[in-house]
Amino acid sequence: MEALSCILSLVNHHPLVTNPVTIFFIVLVIILLAPVLLNRLKIPHIIGMIVAGIIVGPFGLNVLDRDSSFNIFGQVGLLYLMFLAGLEIDMYHLKLNLKRGLLFGLLTFTIPMVIGVLASVYLLHIDWLTSSLLASMYASHTLIGYPVAARYGVTKSPAVLISIVGTIVAVIASLLVLAGAVNIHKVGSLDTAELLLLLARLVIYCLAILYVYPRLTRFFFKRYGDKVTQYVFILALVFLSAWIAKRIGMEEVLGAFFAGLVLNRYVPASSALMSRIEFVGNALFIPYFLIGVGMMINVRVVGQTSTLGIAAVMLVVALAGKWLPAWIAQLVFKMPGAGRRMMFGLTTAHTAVALAVVTIGYNMTDAAGNRLMDETILNGTILVILVTCAIAPIVTAGAAARIKIDMLEQGDIDEKAEQHNLPENMLIPVANPVTAAALVELALLMRSNRRRENDSLYAVHVRGDNSAASKAVGRNSLEIAQKAAAVTDTGLTPIERYDLNTVTGLVNTIEERDINTVVLGMHRKSNVIDSFLGSKLEQLQRMTNRMLIISRCYIPLNTVTRIVVYVPPQAEYETGFPRWVKALATLSRELGCRIIFCCDDKVKPLIRGIIRRARIDTRDEYRELSNPDDFILLSNKILDDDLFVVIMSRANAVSYSASMKDMPEFLQHYFSSNNLIIVYPEQFGDQANIESFADPLATDIGGTASPLWIRLRALARSANNFKKRFTQRGRRSKKIEL
Predict the structure, then answer these.
(1) What are 20-45's pLDDT values in tens digits?
(2) Which CATH number fits domain 554-738: 3.40.1350, 3.40.50, 3.40.1130, 2.60.120?
(3) Which pTM does this prediction carry?
(4) Would you say 60 and 268 are in contact if contact means Cβ atoms under 8 Å apart?
């Protein structure tokens, strides 16, 4: 028996596995099997990782020890979790729910503080200072259930956004209470000057990050386009922000979360950079943190009689202190029951800040040498962490499922309407390996977020000869385009085509694949007599009626600050009007920037209606531009970081005018150094092509001439526009303010 007890003692103190390779293998097996096994039981995999950490940890089978690797990766995982929470927030919805979030933050901080202080003083018989310190643990929480909400795709719901804003308020207020309690313990009284100094450092820190990080990120991204380099740069900024937050007296989690909010604008949700950030965090760092949380939990303390009473009081206070604010917020904001459960599930878990508070209280002693928080409080806190970390993902998962169903039910009308629409098939001609990835990125950012199974994305390279060099260029371009789409988990079909010429190959591909939208790069002038768009693009827009998006961007898309759209008169009568409005609004939403439509007053409600009906949440603004001559004035208003979009029109179209013919020359003369996108809207019916011996490819294959009434209407409109411009010559144009 003595030998057995000695062996158990050795096993209890010395982990079975100490080899780094074996430790990492066991962690990977846990990360792999936890979701697979628990998905069958309808249990969130987060609980599985925490339970696995308890089993293999020092308080379980003692297979692994919570060594420096778990300390480092666990801390990195916590910061990564908070960074992702800030990065994935929809800033548009966050601003809409900011006031409600601040109110909920005050509730979820004040109610646990009051209940915690009263329960600690009158039930646990703890002094007021220690009670305030312990109550700050109840008031704070960790968004451990946020990955569950992200998996269900409900992070943009009001309940989630309100909870996130409330988390910011609760964590900051709890840390201030913690700092004040520690200061009182050291000095003997509340040092108001020290507390005000902490607030001043916090304000200066926030202002510095808000000013420096956007400019530094935009500068770096413009010069370094490699996604791996950008990923390392983003992480460096996150941990720098966390380190500075720790230096000024706050917690690192606050710095990581704030960095995510600031960098949110430069990491679009559909970008390759976002995919890399989410992949690394969800595959390694965050699971490491969850397993490490489980390894800190000692389930043996549950059986101790001295702990059960105190732990029961602490657990009731912790749960009631977070449920009551969620219930009050539900009543005040008139939310459904799923919203209350979501707010409670996201704010009920206690991990990092709770351990920090209890550790500080455990290490602090009074004049007699007694600890402010004894072992029973420490064990009770561990039980609170265990129960709340188990409850939070379960409650969040149930609420997220209900919210997801409600969101789908609210979108039933739009879904049924979309079923009658044509598939959203996009074609990306890639002629150059250098620009292939950028064109794919633009196409992905413009795609609708409701991707149906029959929607497709194609990349095509058309070559006119079978030489080895031409084949190599084509295959290299298609391979780069395919990799750029694969990074974002988007399927792309490469097409290598041999045809008579580039334009004929593109037109044939458009017809064969039923393409709706073509995204291609802008032609660059090769000689003096060459036109602005080039002969190929001019031929292509005459030979097809599908929407053409022609891009010329000198800076990365995620560094664009505004999108300015010029809408010509009568553009609302074109068949493809809703499609290009949705595409540009989606691009604005993904980039997180404003979109300004320069158009006539009567077009504003139509554009706004399309955006609202499509439920594209973006900051859309409108500027009156009724006079065609005001177009030239826009050249002084477009900045280097803006994206200027011009809506063009094909000849004999409804919105075509005489001034449209001179538009390429205006763009070349006044907007030669600006980021530019030219859009030819989609048009149904036969194209009106003018045959010419000098340009034989301008004739549509199998096309027919336009009816006589279309030609007469276009001629009358041209005469009317000429008359209007002649009478307005010399009149000073109205100034456009952007």
Answers:
(1) 888 889 888 888 887 777 767 766 67
(2) 3.40.50
(3) 0.74
(4) no
